[in-house]
């Protein structure tokens, strides 16, 4: 019997964060993956995370975690500015890496990590998990089968509530600084563009504008003003290699219900990918929440049946697509396949995002 792939998570806070909300439930649901080690910057939180999540080892130095022989795969789930240092430490230790998106702050940094992963002979995976949502997989299959004929055009709209209130938690204040590479364009923009490229193919041309429409924010815990430099509006027009055209509008500070809708129109019909109406605010983002798929070839929309049985039941919504990425990453590591987006694809996506002006 093949032993599980042992995972060490950097940034596994015992109380909050993406690791306990998504990664750890996902790992616990997959027999081929086991949580072996955790690392945080403080000894007490590292020990608390080890005890809470059932890991064997706790570290305050991510390089020590990466060098430990019990760790096969290092998972990086911390703030974007720290990604280069932590991923590099894992690569220097000769370990496979799964890093959350955005991989880095710039395409130059992403290309450097890609080269380092290639030199180390290890797999560098990036958390662009929207590709694995059942509705996205089914949409891609239907488009490939010609279910709506030749694609003519597409429209994507996605609105988040992030920044709708003046006061924001201290843990997310850094995302309002464009230099940190974790704002709307970097995070939602990256996930959205990766999704549309996955289902529609390469983007040939991209014209975009950004705007900052909600500049006034304070740290909720202290009242300290935040200097906001990251745009909260992105509007773009894209043209694909196929000739199809697309309009995109992504924005933060939505005061109404947050939502996502992707429509793709062809010569014989239209497909619509929508966020679930009952979803929590965070889960309307295409990479996180449950997505529904509809098709129309006349006047009515009909739901498309989806295969959602690929992950264990009972997982929290935020862990579902992450679990699917883990399952595909395990398969890649076992057979040398290429199911999960790697650092090369991440670098190309960073290059695409850098074509967007940050007004």
From TrEMBL:
InterPro entries reported for this sequence: Gfo/Idh/MocA-like_OxRdtase_N, Gfo/Idh/MocA_oxidrdct_glycsds, GFO_IDH_MocA-like_dom, NAD(P)-bd_dom_sf
Domain (GFO/IDH/MocA-like oxidoreductase) ranges: 137-271
Domain of life, per lineage: Bacteria
Presence of the UniProt keyword Oxidoreductase in the record: yes
Signal peptide: none
Single Gene Ontology MF annotation: oxidoreductase activity
Domain Gfo/Idh/MocA-like oxidoreductase N-terminal: 5-127
This protein's record includes keyword Signal: no
Keyword terms, alphabetized: Oxidoreductase
Protein name: Gfo/Idh/MocA family oxidoreductase
Organism the protein comes from: Actinomadura chibensis
């Amino acid at each position: 019997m093949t032993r599980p792939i042992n995972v060490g998570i950097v940034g596994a806070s015992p109380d909050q964060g993406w690791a306990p909300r998504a990664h750890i439930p996902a790992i616990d649901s997959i027999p081929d993956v086991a949580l072996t080690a955790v690392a945080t910057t403080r000894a007490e939180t590292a020990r608390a995370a080890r005890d809470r999540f059932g890991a064997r080892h706790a570290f305050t130095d991510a390089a020590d975690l990466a060098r430990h022989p019990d760790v096969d795969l290092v998972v990086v789930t911390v703030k974007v500015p720290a990604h280069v240092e932590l991923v590099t430490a894992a690569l220097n230790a000769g370990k496979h890496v799964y890093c959350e998106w955005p991989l880095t702050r710039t395409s130059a940094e992403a290309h450097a990590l890609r080269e380092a992963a290639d030199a180390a002979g290890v797999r560098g995976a990036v958390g662009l998990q929207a590709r694995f949502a059942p509705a996205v997989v089914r949409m891609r299959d239907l488009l490939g089968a010609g279910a709506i004929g030749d694609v003519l055009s597409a429209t994507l709209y996605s609105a988040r509530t992030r920044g709708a209130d003046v006061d924001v938690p201290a843990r997310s204040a850094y995302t309002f600084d464009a230099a940190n590479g974790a704002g709307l364009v970097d995070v939602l923009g990256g996930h959205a563009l990766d999704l549309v490229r996955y289902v529609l193919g390469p983007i040939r041309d991209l014209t975009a504008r950004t705007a900052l429409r909600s500049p006034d924010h304070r740290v909720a815990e202290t009242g300290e003003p935040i200097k906001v430099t990251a745009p909260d509006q992105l509007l773009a027009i894209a043209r694909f290699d196929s000739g199809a055209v697309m309009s995109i509008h992504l924005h933060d500070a939505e005061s109404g219900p947050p939502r996502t809708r992707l429509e793709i129109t062809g010569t014989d019909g239209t497909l619509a990918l929508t966020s679930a109406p009952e979803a929590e605010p965070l889960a309307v983002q295409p990479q996180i929440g449950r997505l529904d798929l509809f098709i129309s070839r006349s006047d009515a929309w009909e739901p498309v049946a989806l295969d959602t049985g690929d992950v264990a039941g009972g997982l929290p919504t935020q862990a579902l697509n992450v679990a699917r990425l883990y399952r595909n990453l395990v398969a890649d590591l076992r057979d040398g396949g290429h199911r999960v987006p790697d650092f090369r694809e991440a670098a190309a996506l960073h290059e695409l995002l850098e074509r967007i002006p940050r007004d």
